[in-house]
Amino acid sequence: MSYTLQLWEKPADWPWPATKAEADAQFERVSDSPPPGQNPKFLEWGRALQERYPEAMDVWLDGSEDGITEDATLGFGINTRTEHWNDAFELAWAQATRLGLNLYDPQSGVHYLGNGDVPEEPDLQLKRAEQARKAGDDATAWAEYRIHAARGNPHALYAMGRALRFGTMGQRRHFDLAAALQVMGAHDAPTRQDAQAFYERFPVEGKGRIQTLMARLKSASGDMLLAIVDGERKAVDDAYVHNEQLLLYTRKRIEAADGMKAAASMGHELAAFYTVLESVIGWEEPSFENARYWCQRAVDWDHEPAKRLFALMHERGWGGSVDMALAAKWNAAASEQWQQEHKLRRAKEEAESPGGLSLAPMAPPAPATAPVVWTGSVLRDLVGWFAREGNPHAAFYMGTLDEHGRAGGVVNLAQARDWYALAAEEGHADGTYNLGVAIENGSGGPKDRLVAQALFMLANTRGTTVRVDTLKLAPHEQGPVRALVSALREPGRLRAVLREKGLQAGAGGIGAPPKGAAGAAVVAGAGAAAAAGLSGTDWGRTGGAQAPPAAASPQGGTPGRSRGQLAQDEGEDDEDDRMPERDRSYQRTTFALHLGHLALLIGAANVVLLILFFKEGASFRRGMAVMGLIAAYGAWRTGRDFDWAPAARAAVAVVAAIPIVGMAVSVWMLVRSFRGRE
What we know:
This protein has 27 helices and 5 strands. It is mainly α.
């Protein structure tokens, strides 16, 4: 007994049928069309079935044993008396779809289209994907959806869009792609309504991006469509990695922060978590409300550290009201997620290890840590949390706070040196420079000139504007300094080198865990704290805690060469675009900055007064002399604080000459006055 089927190919310029009536009409038109000649796809299809299930291929309805036919359709029969006839049917369907051919079952009236769609049973073509999802096999489900999406199946396109929208099936979110794929794959009223509602949530520029992306996807097919999807997803991941590294370079910080925020707006949870910190220490006024908003986004996108921080925000009222119930909820969620991820990692290690034994090195016991001491300053405490998590930008910021006693703290040069060392070890350019300044001046610890010079050279390679040729190394010092640079730049080695040379007593409980097995032990300690249900106040990923601030250092003063982030982009003159002083973390103060500007103006006015309004009298001459001295000091101070390029420094020198001339004239007039009295 044979089960008969029909094979046919849709003309390229005909649309894919969306309903049974459309599929029946297309099949009838193809069947009634004149014989187009031999179709090589029919022969390829028939040979694939005969090689796999020769006993099941019962009869060719057109009478041709080798599958050669001149007709537009090919009829065949499968022997239902064989035990493999169901498998033969599945293979016939799979091969037809692979070749872009349509399979028609006259007995059931079902069309299995070459794009993977089945108008009579919309969910049939994706049954493997659905079964895999129900079984928790996200990788198989995603692979199945990709196969059918490449064939233009709307159900698969829509399912991929939903996965990229909500981060399911193990996929990272990408909102632009999600909107484009959902709109393209919407196949009935509910899906069209859902896709349109999501699309309308985008701003005008976002809709423009989506329309452009949809045009590219619609013009592609097969592997090219998947290549576009993969390329767009990779672009966001690459942008995150690129901007994460770019943030370490002072001169590119604004550009990198903007790029990180763009990645966060696409649904990248790690970028959103970075944006939490940028909302506080970035180039604008600290916005703890924005910090809580981006933390909420990272929580929604299932980022475990964000859940711990979000719990702490509710516990301590950072960026909003205090809510201990929500704090407990998110602490529990973070603990549960950590435990699940730990079990998965452990199971993977055991599966990949001989005999199910993990080959990971045994970790020593976690070191004892001091409890976190909250200062009451939201800025200091929030940034400190990030710094203890190992964030280099937060560590650098904390170093400037401790170095200058800002944000409600006292001057603590030893702790500032530790923060700078943590930032430098993670590649932060200005953290490396300020650490060199501290070691050169002996601030917060012992001095070491060669190590300081090596740090300055390393900072230069990381993007600071200090020039290496100003270090004035003696010939016999060049070799040792280069060797130090090589040692300091090794990943995770900088603080160890400093400890070996007695230049750092240790992290003091403030830093990220050490690399390797010791670091694993500290992280394991954090997991134990999470499992114990400790609050966000009591535990963090590193298990570390900030030690209570030490007594104010007797050295008091700030190092003369310390510098912070650039005030603004080159050529930017708008005062409103500058970062407020409490966010800049400069070594200089706001008073010094504005004194320089004011003094230059006084110096220019000094010259004008001398020329236009000169009058006899000692009081006037003394006033001119005082103004000239103030102007000269201000010009020097302004030129010293700004980290300008050589051309800009030359311009400052020219401007500074104006008050210097005024000062000289005033002093000369004052001397003449005193001589005249004699």
